[in-house]
């Protein structure tokens, strides 16, 4: 399913994949392979600009770190012919790093990396496109948790976002593609990466909001949205928290990564609708995925 929605202020998003029924970890698998790595651009000056942009950013901020990230390379969605068969999605992931992300997706000339194509993966084959993650967290009193980003963050300072970040290759022992060529090693690493998709979003919620992991339900995968501006993809999950919103507000004051945000809001669906106009496109897409999930549940 692909859908493009225009937003005020140019924060458009595209829904690359929508799973309104929500998929459990057993319904989501990963194929991690260098076939899904970025393809360098034939324009050598464009390629050289990646280093130039990164070096300039490092001079401005010596704390920048070039960590590895999983690169989004597409998906296969099997709805199954048998009504009893559960739908299953297979995410196709390669490897990239933060330096290449800054030099391609976040470059002032990011559009020059795009290939004219209706196929999303061909269009973005020269961009870093690390797969981010985000969580729509619902409290026991039916509020949704939204953070206001700090003015010190690199992207969209002051904007409203859902808690999230990135699944991390280092968490499953991945530094490069080397050593995973044999079939049994491929299966093992694919399973570990798939588990990291779900483990990482719980980690992000715990670190950014302060809610303990045992207060959170197992995440369900609801889809992937992409910001049209600089083609930034994000996988979204839905999580229930068994704490009330006022309890979480108290925990937030001592959250490990609280410096990334200035305030936590616990809001109703209608409040969230109003706040969405000041969300980055990928997170507006996350809200759209959540609404499709709610509509699907109401229809059933």
From TrEMBL:
Q: What is the protein name stated in its UniProt record? A: Nudix hydrolase 9-like isoform X4
- Top-level taxon in the UniProt lineage: Eukaryota
């Amino acid at each position: 399913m692909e859908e493009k929605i225009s937003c005020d202020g140019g924060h458009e998003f595209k829904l690359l994949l929508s799973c309104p029924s929500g998929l459990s970890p057993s319904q989501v698998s990963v194929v991690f392979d260098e076939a899904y790595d970025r393809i360098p651009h034939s324009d050598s000056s464009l390629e050289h600009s990646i280093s130039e942009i990164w070096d300039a950013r490092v001079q401005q901020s010596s704390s920048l770190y070039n960590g590895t990230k999983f690169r989004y390379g597409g998906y296969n969605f099997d709805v199954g012919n048998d009504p009893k068969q559960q739908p299953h999605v297979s995410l196709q992931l390669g490897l990239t790093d933060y330096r290449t992300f800054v030099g391609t997706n976040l470059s002032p000339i990011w559009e020059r990396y795009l290939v004219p194509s209706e196929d999303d993966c061909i269009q973005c084959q020269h961009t870093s496109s690390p797969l981010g993650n985000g969580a729509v967290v619902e409290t026991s009193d039916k509020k949704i948790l939204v953070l206001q980003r700090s003015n010190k963050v690199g992207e969209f300072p002051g904007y409203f976002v859902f808690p999230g970040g990135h699944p991390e290759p280092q968490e499953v022992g991945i530094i490069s593609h080397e050593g995973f060529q044999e079939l049994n090693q491929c299966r093992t690493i694919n399973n570990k990466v798939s588990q990291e998709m779900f483990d990482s979003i719980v980690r992000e919620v715990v670190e950014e909001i302060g809610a303990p992991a045992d207060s959170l339900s197992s995440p369900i995968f609801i889809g992937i949205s992409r910001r049209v501006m600089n083609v930034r993809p994000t996988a979204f999950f839905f999580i229930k928290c068994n704490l009330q919103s006022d309890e979480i507000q108290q925990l937030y004051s001592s959250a490990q990564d609280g410096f990334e945000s200035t305030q936590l809001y616990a809001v109703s669906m209608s409040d969230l609708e109003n706040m969405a106009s000041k969300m980055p496109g990928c997170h507006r897409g996350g809200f759209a995925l959540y609404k499709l999930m709610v509509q699907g549940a109401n229809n059933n």
